[in-house]
Amino acid sequence: MNRKMKPESLMMSYGYKPELSEGAIKCPIFQTSTFVFKSAEEGKAFFEVAYGLREPHIGEELGLIYSRINNPDLEILENRLTLWDEAEACAVFESGMSAITTVLLEFLKPGDLILISGPLYGGSDHFIRKILPKFGIHVVAFKVGQSYDEIIQIVNETGMADQLAMVYIETPANPTNDLIDIEGSKNIARHFSTPEKEIYLAVDNTYMGPLWQHPLKHGADLVLYSATKYIGGHSDVIAGACLGSNELIKRVKGLRTFLGNMASPNTGWLLLRSLETLKARMDIQAFNANKVAEYLNHHPDVEKVYFLGNLTESNGEQYAIKQRQCLSNGGMISFDVKGGEHEAFVFLNALRLIKLAVSLGSTESLAEHPATMTHIDVDDNLKQQLSITEKMVRLSIGVENHEDIIEDIRQALEKVHKGKVHETEAMENGSAYN
Ligand SMILES: *Cc1c(COP(=O)(O)O)cnc(C)c1O
């Protein structure tokens, strides 16, 4: 068979040889800390390659040494993950944050400047703004909607443009679904690169998962995932991944070996299992999200819906970016309920099927209140600028039947509506609280 198979067809078998595991159809959990060498000579050869003391001979693979360096569950998982993004290499971690922080520590050094998009995931934002400066790393940020020229100017105005070492973005932005141009961001990195120093672009692609956006194809050098989200997809594991060229991932894995923040064999095994249904799950989630957004768009108690599917040509640049880099409308919807925090909380407390929890991308639908939960740390001015207000609710759409999800939203919005009618009546009777 010459035709190249799609990743979803390979998720059950790619990279695993049953004959090496007693014929087991599934890769077992290699719950082992260390591996026995056949001979001292073999051990020596494995170490030489692992520590980069010599290039591997043609066809020579990295031998199994110790589970902080490599483990079959991790290697097979990494190989399978490369298929979605068509990356050369992948490194998996025990959390999304460990993937992100390892990349930042590997590619930045004291005196460097990092350019970030805003808003970033709270954990990433905290690490970049509060922890990296302790190591002498400077930070400058741009916002959604700023043009190429404006961003170049922001960097120049720092007076440290020649120290720029990395551009780090997250798109779509959480929770508003605003888009950042990946290709445009790489062009900014190129603008400040010199023949001696290439400035890398890293993209946190968690929100779209490995199916709906492929940053490497648009110029990104590194793609990062919280594998806790779509990749894991069952709300039962914390993990992360980083993908890119062999050259860059070799550096990332090098630091990972010394930080010791690789994923465990058990995490690797859980993610291998999750990957088998990744496409099926995400297809249903995207289908459901379109249905839910359509319902919210026409609901009289909903003021505004933030969903990629709502972008039209009238949205100009945002629509153009979506057409270029997004393969789906995704599974994340935010909306403003008419009213404020009270109405948003009535809605959240009334949900029955949809669970009130942070995180995203899992089989079950989730709802949360960004202003007081995931984005509580964002300063008030910026929150207003980004439209992260008290009336906003964020939904992560799961794989349930779409009619049941919509019915749950309908009955919860009805409670909001009744509450408002009740309050108005009470006010007319002279007391707001009887
Ligand atoms: C959850 C998340 C992270 C952090 O991942 P963990 O697996 O929780 O460490 C990073 N970026 C984004 C966009 C996320 O949603």
Task: Explain what this protein looks like in three dimensions.
It is a single chain. The chain has 434 residues and is of the alpha/beta class. It has two domains: 7-32 and 67-275, Aspartate Aminotransferase, domain 2, CATH 3.40.640; 278-426, Aspartate Aminotransferase, domain 1. It has 15 helices and twelve strands. The protein has helices at 7-10, 40-50, 72-85, 96-107, 122-131, 148-157, 182-192, 209-212, 246-259, 265-275, 278-297, 317-325, 341-350, 380-385, 402-428; strands spanning 89-93, 113-118, 138-143, 164-170, 200-204, 222-226, 240-244, 302-306, 332-337, 355-356, 366-368, 392-396. A seven-stranded mixed sheet has the order 1-7-6-5-4-2-3, sandwiched between helices. A five-stranded mixed sheet has the order 8-9-12-11-10. Helix 3 runs parallel beside helix 10 and helix 4 packs parallel to helix 5. The radius of gyration is 24 Å and the shape is globular. The N and C termini lie far apart (74 Å). The mean pLDDT is 95. The structure holds pyridoxal-5'-phosphate (PLP). The site of pyridoxal-5'-phosphate (PLP) has 16 residues, from helix 4 and helix 5.
Bin the helical content: 25-40%
Number of domains: 2
Global mean pLDDT = 95
Major beta sheet, strand line-up: 1-7-6-5-4-2-3
Task: Write the H/E string, N to C.
Answer: HHHEHEHEHEHEHEEHHHEHEHEEHEH
The shape, in one word, is globular
Number of strands: 12
Query: What is the CATH fold-level name of the largest domain?
Result: Aspartate Aminotransferase, domain 2
Give a brief rundown of this model.
The protein is an alpha/beta fold and 434 residues long. The chain has 2 domains: 7-32 and 67-275, Type I PLP-dependent aspartate aminotransferase-like (Major domain) (Aspartate Aminotransferase, domain 2, 3-Layer(aba) Sandwich), CATH 3.40.640.10; 278-426, Aspartate Aminotransferase, domain 1 (Alpha-Beta Complex). The chain has 15 helices and 12 strands.
